[in-house]
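In pairs, describe these two lines:
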Amino acid sequence: MIFGKEREAVRNATRAIRDLVLRPGREHGGGGLFGGLGAVAAMAMEPLRELPEMATRLPGTLRELGDRVTAIPGGRRRAPAIAFAAQALAGSIRLDATLRERYLNLLAASMDRDTAARVHPAFLSVLRELTPDEVRIVSQFQHDGPYPLLTVAARRRFGERLGTELRHFSGLAAQAGCERPDRFPLYVDNLCRLGLTELRAVRVADDTRIFRALEAAPEVKAAITRIESNAWAQLGFAERSPSREGSGTLPGVPAGSKPLGGAAGGDADDPVVADLQRKALYVTSFGRQFYEACEYRPEPIR
């Protein structure tokens, strides 16, 4: 409850901001401290300028929410927590269609007694930290995994890793219809940071057949070719030709061949090779609940 003195203080502050925004410099000049305060006040008022546009979205948003709630059987409907509902509606009317739908799904799931207990309060915070592309990827998590990821790195055959040519390559970005599939490695990092997914190394004993499609992809083959071409150039060979089995030389280097001038960094005894690193992406328990809440759509009553 706001009492008289507090109410008057709010009015005075509002009046001061309005004066700074609408009539900056009327009494104090346009520059200096008061000019800066005018700029700060304008920034503070910026969210209010979105109100008319947000207001036009509200009826449609409420209709979409109403359709979802109407589809929930009457005996299962429950009132949502006020704070949760307010944040979900605020997100749904300010963001694009992909995110708006997930906010509404979360809110509707919290209003169904059968699913409300699995709608964690942190889901709203998680959703605020996702891009539309990341939400599209989450929508592909119909099972907990593994989802294969392939990294192509350059390393010495008998030594250290030198660099990564292709990181976390996967078919998930294309399947999800991502607008920026090139950012998929960053998306994976963020999903893992938020606790929705986790990366696990593939063991020698694991079945690697799920990686075959990725290994045959043009992007992977091109990354391997770039590494091999750079290694060949460093060693200074004039051209490539089929290798002889058991020759003890580099792949693609005829027996008896020698570098043409010993380029810096070249080492025929420890050549640079392409290293395929297989990892599996798994959906965590938290991620599974998040997926179910964000994809929640009750069946319409017939």
Summary: Residues 27-34, 237-265 have pLDDT under 50 and may be disordered.
